[in-house]
Amino acid sequence: MKKNLKHPWAMKSAFLHSIRTTLILCFLIPVVFIVALGLIIYHQSSGNLIENYEASTITSMKMMSNYLDFGFQSVNSKGNILRSNADILNYYSGSYKDDPAVEYTTYKDMKKFISMNVFAEDYCKNILMFANYGDGITISGRTSVRGLYDNFSKTVLADKLKKSNSDHIWVGYHTDLDESMNTNSTKFSISNISYLYNASKEKVGYIVVDVSNKYIQDTLMEMGFDNGSIAGFISSDNKEIHQLFSGEGLSSDSSSSKDQTRSASFDFDFHFSDQEFYKESIKGNELIGYQYITYHNQDYLFIYNKLTSCDGTLCALIPKAKIIADAQSVKSTTSFIILIASTIAILTGTLVASGISKSIRSTNKVLASASVGDLTKVIHTNRKDEFLVLSKSINHMIASMMSLIRKMTGVSNHIFQSSEDVKQNTTLLLKSSENISVSLNEINHGIQVQAHDAEHCFQQMIGLSGEIKKIYQHANEIESISFTTQEVITQGIHIMDDLGAKTNNTSHITKEVISDITELEHLSLAIGSIISTIAEIAEQTNLLSLNASIEAARAGKSGLGFAVVAEEIGKLAAHSTDSVEQINKIITQIRMQTQKTVASAKKAANILGSQEQTFGSSFQVFYEINKHVENLNNNIHQISSYIANVESSKSNTLNAIDSISSTLQQTTAMTSELGNAASIQLNAVECLNKAAEQLAEESRDLQESVRVFKVIE
To answer: Tell me, what is an example of a GO biological process annotation in this record (predicted)?
Structure first.
């Protein structure tokens, strides 16, 4: 017995595609929407809670900042009260220096006034007032530090106050005063330093009001931030007052500087002024702002508010986890509801799917038996739903299949016997068709060879016709060229006649030119003799001028005019001599050139004589060429006539060959059609034979297949 073994991945695939899995997934779809709805509600509530928390925190920060601003403005007001007090103005103006008793009484009144009107305020930790005259005043009593004004005037704080373009500044440290007064900067949070004036409104001293740490710490505690938060006040010179918020109550921290450490839940050496997010906020122009930052791998809300009254900053770090704590409760409730809904959906889907799966398994068992040929089994079910209808339909289908199998058994036997008869007949028909096809192929081959030979002959005749046509065309072209050549030669003969006449004229003219040039040479010789005579006259004139000059010299003063004439004649004779020499040179050049021209003319005359002889010979040659070309034209005309006759015979031959080729082609086509018909018949017979064999094989398979089914007899 064979075991039905399935691969693990096939079983897994079947489980994933089962109805049970599908139903469970369908029940989970609403659960998914519930989860999505819960997430949406959580994100919206979280966002709203965060926005409300941020708004309330900023409002609280503004209120505390306004409260601090009010206190710092009160400090400035107290300074103005001190500067406007008459006793203080007169005392530091030196109005009582001549009456020590009055001066001492005034000093006590000033101290009493300060204690009652300034120091009585909660924010005031200490007051120091000193000038370039008199004693300074503090809340502890009179001090005899006479050099305090001179020392402080040279400090950085005094220079800062001078450059501030104001009558006061706010600082977190006054180290120089602490050293002089033996005080500690940790006892106060921030100080207001302002000028002290005398009665003449001159700057004669300073007023220092220290604000207590308690005032700042109480303000920070009033913010009431969540546990794990830290709030701080930072002065312009980075002095910080911190307030930590913890679950065990508020943990206050006095002023902290960068050279101090403190024990706190936040960090031992934490300072806002060291953090980059604080530095960036200080650089900005916004007075109030917030951002989320990460400190020690935890997210915090950083809020700051710049105080305009003291150049300080109020800021805080609040854990983001505390901000979204209420949203976390919404998340927990939503998660619980989703878990319950998912559990109920899965259980309901499992129960429904189990009942459906049981019915389907029993149905599949019967169908599996039917698929292997066992039609004796039926489906039994107790369900009253659609599965009952399905079971009845399947049982009816199996019964119908049993009836069909019985009929198929009888039909298959009859088909098998008929297929054997068809197979024998088709075998005989196939052999006859093969013989007919072979004979037709041999006839078709012989006709194709004849058609090929006729076509080849026809193509050769066409080629020969083309060559004859080309020869005829070339003969016509040669005939035309010979006629053209004869006309050109006739024209050349006429041109040679004209050229001969013109050559004779040129020879005659050349002889006349030679005669004229020879005559010009004789005239040049005559001009030379005349120039020689002129030269002799000039020489005589020059001698005459010389003799006249000698005679004028002998005559003395009376011969001066004659001497001038003699000098001019001498110049004229010299000029004439020069001109004669130049003319001699020109005449000599003319004679030389004339002689060369005569020689060239004689050479031209000789050449013209030779040309006359050459023209005579050329004329005779052209005459002979003309005769030969005329004979050539006659011969070419006869050749063209012969070629025209050949062309006419060629057309008749081509028509005959074309008729033979067409007849062979028609015969070949008919034979090919007959062969194709025989091939088609052969193919049909082969197909019929194969179909008969296949029918016999399939009838045997049908018998075997029918035997597989088990039916009730």
So the answer is: chemotaxis
